[in-house]
Amino acid sequence: xxxxxxxxxxxxxxxxxxxxxxxxxxxxxxxxxxxxxxxxxxxxxxxxxxxxxxxxxxxxxxxxxxxxxxxxxxxxxxxxxxxxxxxxxxxxxxxxxxxxxxxxxxxxxxxxxxxxxxxxxxxxxxxxxxxxxxxxxxxxxxxxxxxxxxxxxxxxxxxxxxxxxxxxxxxxxxxxxxxxxxxxxxxxxxxxxxxxxxxxxxx
Length: 203
What we know:
Layout: H1 2-18, E1 23-26, E2 35-41, E3 46-51, E4 54-60, E5 69-75, H2 84-91, E6 103-117, E7 120-131, E8 134-147, H3 151-154, E9 160-172, E10 190-202
Antiparallel strand pairs: 1-4, 2-3, 2-10, 4-5, 5-6, 6-7, 7-8, 8-9, 9-10
């Protein structure tokens, strides 16, 4: 009986942590708030644009933030700039060629320099970015905020957790074969990307 009581006590005290592990977070936001902001700052023109056709899934373990993995997908046709003529150029086969390359993806493979304070983790995430049909290994700084039981604050009818990702980094369009060496007085080679994303894990 004493052994049985010990087993029951252990189950009650440690049962929830024993079954804890990675959660899957869905980044297709029903509100359409998730977005990527991109900026080029060339000598003649500075251009800002956005994209909100975002989906993907990320696996995150609050007990082991450094094990984060997953894939974020941006629909190329969802990229927008204020000028209609520029938008036409952006989508054309001379630039992004959205008809042939409909998606931009980032697949997170591992994390280094992981630091966690309370529910916030900063890390350098190593992954593969695919743009314009070209895949490159990149390392980007990411801030990860785990918000337990906060899904209801965004969607009152749902229970669950949120995972918020923030990242700012630069890619070179020449690395992805996008009009390499052309038009750099108006569209810089360096493209600054700013990601603001929230994923949901209902339960």
